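Worked example 3 (structure in, sequence out).
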């Protein structure tokens, strides 16, 4: 094979350009596939979320699970679920404070 250095150089450059192009195509294909997978995943999660929402509205016991609707208890900075908040306030705050007050007065 008797090629001049210049020719070899050109040939290599061309070849590199071609491989680069091929690589770009492959990358593009790969990204497209990734995107499709993500979209699919997203759709699946949305569906799951809807099912959970439906479940939540149809089943009252769901409310008793912690972390459904989180609300801060303002007085003690503790996180409590809505159904328990009222109960929590009654027991945790009012009773002890009233007993304390009585002790102080006597």
């Amino acid at each position: 094979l008797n090629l001049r250095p210049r020719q070899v150089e050109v040939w290599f450059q061309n070849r590199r350009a071609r491989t680069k192009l091929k690589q770009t195509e492959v990358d593009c294909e790969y990204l497209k596939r990734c995107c499709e997978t993500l979209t699919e995943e997203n759709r699946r999660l949305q569906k799951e979320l809807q099912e959970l929402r439906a479940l939540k509205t149809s089943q009252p016991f769901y409310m008793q699970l912690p972390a459904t609707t989180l609300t801060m208890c303002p007085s003690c900075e503790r996180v409590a679920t809505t159904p328990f908040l009222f109960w929590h306030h009654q027991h945790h705050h009012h009773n002890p404070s009233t007993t304390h007050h009585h002790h102080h007065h006597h």
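Notes: The chain has two domains: 1-58, 63-106. The helical segments are 5-58, 82-105.
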